[in-house]
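Following up on my earlier thread - several people asked me to post the actual chain instead of describing it. Fair enough. Here it is, all 123 residues.
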Amino acid sequence: MTPETDPLGKTVLLVDSDQKLGQLRARRLRLYGITVYIAASIQEARVHLQMNSYDLVLLATREDPEAAIVFHREIRRHNPKQRVAFLVGPPRYLSFTFGQNLIPMPPRSSSWADKLKSHLASA
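Reply from S.P.:
Thanks for posting it. Predicted structure:
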């Protein structure tokens, strides 16, 4: 399974155990022309990362932040150049360093997707 190339040439692996919220986030990103693959768990994400490469791994951390941090370190050991971002707190908060430089987004529902798109465009 190779990620398809989208008009921007960007692919995201979204790791989110909340199926409804993950699908909502994926739909929003796809509206921006980003190819999104969803993993429902860190274990599933490991399989995706072994099989494919992604421009960004996006980790939802609300369920188990400690496991997300451990997974982030694991990703860094295996692929130091892999870009990772964390969805923290309410769905409109995004962090590229988890716990540092938290980026609060305006309440508009698509604002986090706007920020993520601009982050990917700079890659």
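Confidence is low (pLDDT under 50) at residues 1-6, 99-109. That should answer part of your original question.
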